[in-house]
Structure formats: structure tokens, C-alpha cells
Amino acid sequence: QMFDLFDKDNNLGLIFPETFSPLERQAVWGGNLLGCKALLEKLRIIGDLPQDPVFPVGNMFWAKTDAVRALFALGLKQDDFPKEAAQTNSTIAHCIERCWTFIAADYKFTYKKVFNNVLTPVVLPDKKRVAFYVHFNKNNDHAISDTDLQSLQVYRSIFDETVFISNSPLNDEAMEKIQPLTSKIILRKNVGFDFGGWKQGMEEFGYDRLKEYDEVAIINNSTFCPLYDLKSVFSEMESRKDDFWGITLFPAIKEKKYLQSNGITEHLQSFFVVFGKKVLQSGELKNFFDHMGDSNNFINAVKNGEVALTAYLRKCGFTYSPYLMESYYICNYLNDYRLPYTKPLSLVQIGCPFVKKKAYDYMPEIERIALENFVEKMGKKLN
């Protein structure tokens, strides 16, 4: 496919992957600007350099030989490179890494960033699965959005049954649209938020009946329709043999003000969590919901629900992991604990199937444009 891109565009000289999200902060000059200028001057490439460079971070790329020939003709020798001493910056290698696009441009070649969007068909193991999907409409217009209906259609291909729980009133038109995509509809007041809805859904479904299933998922409608094939997600996570799993992992932090506690413990973020047979057979999921603290506001819902759930099951001895362990590292590395809201593109680029709807309330305009352009390249759209 790389060669096809080169064949279609004679001016295209350099192709490299989108920057791996945990390395975003390294996609800068990083103290190498003067060294890069000196290297380019040796190549007789003179001119102003941009504030931020665009380059193949990690120095992995595809190139036409004519686009980069000048560097190899410069005559650099082994002695021009410092001896290996575990250097992490400011060597000629770091300068070369940042100069490829400028070398190509001097020979009238362009560059293109690409990402892996090749779909591999996945056949899931024959397991019995049920989802509890909590819906909330902040507009209170008694309707259901197109993206929520599209999500239900996707979940229908994964789960044998989907219990739809709405914490908002729905009109007849919305109910007619939902019914063919779900096995049961529960209408309730927004008491206890998502976890209150999941608790009621499981109680009405029956905990004994849950034990007949191999996997149970709790999902809410805080995200747009999945961008990637969820069958691939399930296939990967089932191969890990964890007792329960989610998509992203929030790291432990010492922040005390938000939850009015001693800090926030590590936890799977609850917009999409799946429990396996071992958890279901143990009865501990029922025990958690039976003794869950009251959630009369959103902060208590996070504290008593999302954060407490992972902590409780971990204490019970169950194993877990996120689909995107990188989410944990990116939060820590960027010191950004609102990552799904402020930098959703970083997650999508590493395979996150979900974009939070509230990201539109928090992400900068430049992030929104980049996100929508990226999603468009995938052949998708955010409604």
C-alpha cells in the first residue's frame, strides 16, 4: 500500500506513521534546532525553520531514494556519530531524525502521515454475552440520537441480549426505534446516575440468570458510535484471560479535592467494562451493587461507582487490564487526567474505538479539527 501511494503521487517522497501518542512531547526540536540548522547548511539547505518540526518520530519511514539521497551523499562516517553512552537527545542522530522532511522538500518532494486502518476480519468465540446499556439525554427532548442508535446496532452484533436502560424520558418515536435493537427496555428516573441504572437493570434481569452468561458488559451512551471493529477488541481482551476489562485505565493520583477523599485509586473507566465468567459466578458483582454507596450527585457516582468498582473487584482477587494500556502511560506522561476529553485524537490514533461526546466541551479547536480530519480519513464521522 505504501508503494501504491508513491505510484499515485510523483511528488510524494516520504511516508511515515502518525506520532505514537506517548511520544507526542518528543515531537519537537527538543534542543536540536541549532544542530539541525548546521546539518541542513552542510546540505546547502538554507531557510527559516518552523516553530515545530514535522518528522518521523522514532526515525521509521518509507522514502523514495531521490527524496533523501542528499543526506547519504554528504559523506557522514562512523566517526561523525558519538559513541553509544545511552544518550537520549542532542546527537547527530537526533538531528537527522528531524531533518528528513526538509531534505525531501528541498528536492520538491512532499510527505504524508499514515496510520494502520487495515481491517482484519475477526470471528469471536461462541460465547453468551449480555450488555446493560444506560442512556441519558441531557437535552431532555425525549428523543434518542442517531449515534446512539448506531451504537446499539453495533452492540447487537456482539451481544446476544442488550438491556436498554434510559435515565431520561423517551417518546413513542424513540421507543419504536429502540425496540428492534434491544431485548428489554427500562425507563427510570436518573437516580444514582449510570451505576443506579446498571444496578436496576441487573436486578430486573436477575443475578442468577447472569450466571448463565460468559460475559456481561456495562456500557453508557457517553461516547459516539465505535470507530473501530469491536470484535477485534473482544478478541484481543479474551486472549488475555483477565477476569474483567475495560477500554482505558485511569492511574492512581493523590488529588484529594475532586472526590473529597485521600486520592483517586487506579480504575477502569466505566463507560465500557466487561466482566467474565469468574466474576459472574462469584456473586461479587451483586455484592458490590447491593452495598454501593448512594450517589445523589455526579461526584459521588464517580467515587462510589466507577472508582470503587475496580478497587472492590481487585480486593476480591480478580485480575483486570485495559484494552489500551497506553492510556495509563499517556495520562501520566502528559500529566493530563482528562485525556478522553482534552486529547481524544491521541486515543483514537492508538486504536481507541470510542470518542467521548463531552470532548466537544473540553478539547481545543485545533484538536477538534485534527480529530475530525483523522476520523474522515478512516471513512467515519462523528455525529
Task: Name its key features.
383 residues, eight-stranded mixed sheet, elongated
C-alpha Rg, in Å?
Answer: 25 Å
Give the biggest beta sheet.
Answer: 8 strands, mixed
Helix count from the secondary structure assignment: 17
pLDDT averaged residue by residue: 92
Low-confidence spans: pLDDT under 50, at least 5 residues?
none
What's the number of extended β-strand segments?
Answer: 11
Name the structural class.
Answer: alpha/beta
The separation of the N and C termini measures: 30 Å
Order of helices and strands: HEHEHHEEHEHEHHEHEEEHHHEHHHHH
Strand content: 5-15%
* Approximate shape: elongated
Helix content: 25-40%
In short:
This protein has 383 residues and is an alpha/beta fold. The chain contains 17 helices and eleven strands. Strands 4, 5, 6, 7, 8, 9, 10 and 11 form an eight-stranded mixed sheet that branches. A three-stranded mixed sheet has the order 2-1-3, with helices on both faces.
Question: What does this 3D model show about the protein?
Answer:
Helix 2 (33-42) crosses helix 4 (92-106) and helix 3 packs across helix 4 (92-106). The protein has 17 helices and eleven strands. The model has no long low-confidence stretch (mean pLDDT 92). With 383 residues, it is an alpha/beta fold. The strands form two sheets. Strands 4, 5, 6, 7, 8, 9, 10 and 11 form an eight-stranded mixed beta sheet that branches. It has helices at 2-8, 33-42, 65-72, 92-106, 146-156, 172-178, 193-205, 207-210, 230-240, 277-282, 284-290, 298-315, 326-334, 339-342, 344-349, 359-362, 365-377; strands at 12-17, 62-63, 110-114, 129-135, 161-166, 184-187, 215-220, 244-250, 267-268, 272-275, 320-324. The protein is 40% helix and 14% strand. It is elongated and about 75 Å long.
